[in-house]
Design goal:
single chain; 392 residues; alpha/beta; Nucleotidyltransferase, domain 5; five-stranded mixed beta sheet; 13 helices; 14 strands; elongated
């Protein structure tokens, strides 16, 4: 058994083990073995069976436990970082199909991370169960049928205090992932709605292509193609150099445009290696090329930098009917960032490094989507956070 902190293991987990052990004795069932007060020593049973607890923030200390009948219980699982899940999976290697198991109960408090992915991008590998406090015998019969579960009065009190649509009520009572945390830029509901309407949304207007060029390591170069409220094509690339990326962009532009009057507008993040792709594409007469520096000042008041404005531009686009095909990586990237305010009261989205810590990867697909939406170098409409405006 494990939990994000030793205090969570000691109280209430290990206290509950003691309670169950002693209650069994009271009704004539001696469960045997020796139960220690120390959770790390645990409960020692015959034939090398045992129950014990570990807590650590060092993955190496979770390795080295294996058995054909191994059960790993990860309490408050949404609080575990991705690197701590790897040794759990490693411990199950070699136990045989269907033998070792991981049980991971938690309130769904995070809209990114491993626990979130278990219910979304990795759901095929998990048997997921959702429990609501409003769907229990205690609630339906308006009396305590199962001690310890929330009562009818408690649920209704929370409904009055928090409101049924609040993130707190959705998470703590219904057991839903929050559709909108208090400081999330983009809600899970907005993203899910965009996925649902993708098949029925018609592509309209000019072809816009956003290109987020990978800087290093496992980051993806992502090419995102948009017409109006529909993403018409994605192309993630790994290990491509500047010339290869430029060539892919030109090929996509040729494939998706309909004639000489249908000219694609390509927006490239030119911070770092993206400048090389821009240099190559700027020589082409087949496309319009726009250099974007997201570190520059925002185009409108109220935002710290252009990058902050563009994240809220994605939100505006989604609220106005934006759509894309189901993509678990994009979903988790869009709902991950939170926002706050700088000393001048301007909206500031968490840094890319902070988002990468949550995702254990760069939000390259979300960045490419933002670039496809960006539009400020030409007269006409462009999206800005909180409204739609016109630049001349």
């Amino acid at each position: 058994m494990t939990a994000p902190s030793f205090q969570q293991v000691k109280d209430p987990l290990w206290k509950e083990v003691w309670r169950l052990y002693l209650d069994a004795k009271k009704i004539g069932h001696d469960l045997g073995g020796h139960l220690y007060r120390d959770p790390a020593t645990g409960w020692i049973l015959p034939e090398d069976s045992k129950l014990f607890c570990r807590t650590t923030d060092e993955p190496e200390k979770l390795q080295g436990t294996s058995s054909p009948n191994l059960l790993i219980i990860v309490d408050e699982a949404s609080g575990y970082s991705a690197d701590l899940w790897e040794p759990f999976r490693g411990n199950l290697m070699g136990t045989g199909p269907g033998s070792g198991k991981i049980f991971a109960p938690s309130n769904p408090t995070q809209t990114s991370g491993e626990f979130f992915d278990f219910f979304h991008s990795k759901a095929e590998h998990w048997h997921t169960i959702q429990l609501s406090s409003a769907n229990t015998p205690n609630y339906h019969e308006k009396k305590i049928v199962i001690p310890g579960l929330a009562t009818y009065d408690e649920v209704e009190q929370r409904r009055k205090e928090w409101g049924e649509d609040s993130a707190a009520f959705q998470v703590r009572v219904y057991g839903n992932f929050p559709s909108q945390s208090d400081n999330a830029v983009i809600s899970l509901k907005l993203v899910n709605d965009a996925i649902k309407r993708w098949e029925t949304t018609e592509p309209t207007g000019k072809l816009h292509i956003g290109v987020d060029v990978a800087r290093f390591g496992d980051d993806e170069t992502v090419i995102c193609c948009r017409r109006g409220n529909r993403i018409v094509k994605w192309l993630p690339l790994n290990g491509a150099d500047n010339v290869d990326v430029a060539g892919k962009v030109l090929k996509i532009a040729r494939d998706l445009t309909t004639g000489p009057l249908d000219v694609a507008r390509v927006k490239i993040d030119t911070i770092g290696v993206g400048s090389g792709v821009y240099d190559v594409l700027s020589r082409s007469k087949e496309i319009e090329v726009v250099a974007v520096n997201v570190a520059e000042s925002a185009m409108v008041d109220g935002f710290h930098r252009l990058r902050d404005q563009l994240w809220f531009a994605i939100k505006d686009w989604l609220m106005e009917g934006g759509s894309f095909e189901d993509d678990p990586r994009l979903l988790s990237e869009l709902v991950a960032p939170d926002y706050g305010f700088d000393t001048q009261g301007r909206t500031k989205v968490e840094s890319k490094d902070e988002t990468k810590k949550k995702l254990k990867r760069s939000p390259d697909r979300a960045d490419a989507l933002a670039l496809s939406i960006y539009e400020a170098s030409y007269a006409g409409d462009f999206y800005v956070g909180g409204c739609r405006s016109v630049r001349h």
